Amino acid sequence: MNGLLSLNRKHIFLADDEVVDPKKYLEESCNPKCVKPLLEYQACVKRIQGDDSGHKHCTGQYFDYWQCIDKCVAPKLFTKLK
Amino acid sequence: MVGGGVIQQILRRKLHSQSLTTPVRSWFSSKNAHVEAGSSGVRAFALLGAGVTGLLSFSTVASADEAEHGLACPDYPWPHDGILSSYDHASIRRGHQVYQQVCASCHSMSLISYRDLVGVAYTEEEAKAMAAEIEVVDGPNDEGEMFTRPGKLSDRLPQPYANESAARFANGGAYPPDLSLITKARHNGQNYVFALLTGYRDPPAGISIREGLHYNPYFPGGAIAMPKMLNDEAVEYEDGVPATEAQMGKDVVSFLSWAAEPEMEERKLMGFKWIFLLSLALLQAAYYRRLKWSVLKSRKLVLDVVN
User: What's chain A's Rg over C-alpha atoms?
Assistant: First the structure.
């Protein structure tokens, strides 16, 4: 992501005047806080890689990760929106 | 599956203890001893079967449950959440624009009329002009024929499909629900709709969605017929606000919240006023009750014992 990005600014613009969605931006910035569930998810992905039965899936770990991200993003998101 | 092994061990131990007690039982009724010995084997097998099926069904139900209920949505700090907070009417206006340009092609809002928008999101002239853009079928004229006319304020918002069957046919069997009450018709409606609209993501490893459906973790089951509709700058706002996905989501949910609960602001004012007044009345009533009862409560009883 190149351009002017700052958590203090209300509208986030890239140098070429393209608008960045604040939710995506916050989700990325919350990634470091949710490393543990992310690693769990990646471990699960690796575990089921060889599986061909179609019954194995990583929904649980996926949900845990996204729940962590959501909890981090939700209080901050609306301050970035009009 | 480790749990399954443990349960099998426990059941085997139970079987052993049962076989130890059968000689005791046979002492009581020697006639039925051989029957009991045979049935205890069947009983143990039944127990084993029950245990294994119980464990299997439990594990499959637990994992199916998560996707079944959908990912729980977070609580967003809506500007109209407070006890005396009103709607953000600029947001409602933008949200109506999003609805009109993005959602109205599939979703009806048949309980809202153009006149409801006056004073909330548009002036009367603006609402009249918007209504006049649509064609409405009106009742029989003097010659007994139905005719079409431009819309008026009293007309409802136009429906994209004639009926549910037409809607399902045009959308692969899925019915795009009417949105007039959607934020009240779903648990934690406002947060749910916002999370759903902005929550389209790649499915987790191991989950594949069939052609025609899309993955959305917030949707119960995970496979929703509606594709991702909110994309950055899909709409150009009149007031120049950048139309990011999150902005459009917030505005359209504000609009939908208003549509479902247009009385909210009046309700909050009324609630605040009457709770305040009734609290004063409560204090007055409490004082009056204690005043009247003071006569009895300050009685003194004297026991005059005569020996």
Answer: 16
Q: Which of A25, A77, A79, A80 to mutate to test the interface with B (most CBs of B within 10 A)?
A: A77
- As separate numbers, helices (DSSP H) first and strands (DSSP E) second, chain B gives 10, 4
Confirm if B88 and B262 have CB atoms less than 8 A apart. no
Instruction: Give me the amino acid identity at B178.
Output: D
pLDDT one-digit tens code per residue, B194-249: 999 999 999 999 999 999 999 999 999 999 999 999 999 999 999 999 999 999 99
Side chain identity, residue A20: V
Residue B109 annotated as lining a ligand binding site? no
Q: What distance in Å separates residue B55's CA from the closest CA in chain A? A: 17
Q: Which two tokens stand for residue B201?
A: 């993501």
The closest alpha carbon to B198, from B231, B224, B222, belongs to B231
Asked if this assembly's ipTM is beyond 0.95, the reply is no
List the single residue in B with minimal CA-CA distance to A48. B206
Judging contacts by C-beta atoms under 8 Å, the chain B residues touching residue A9 are none
- The answer to pTM > 0.90 is no
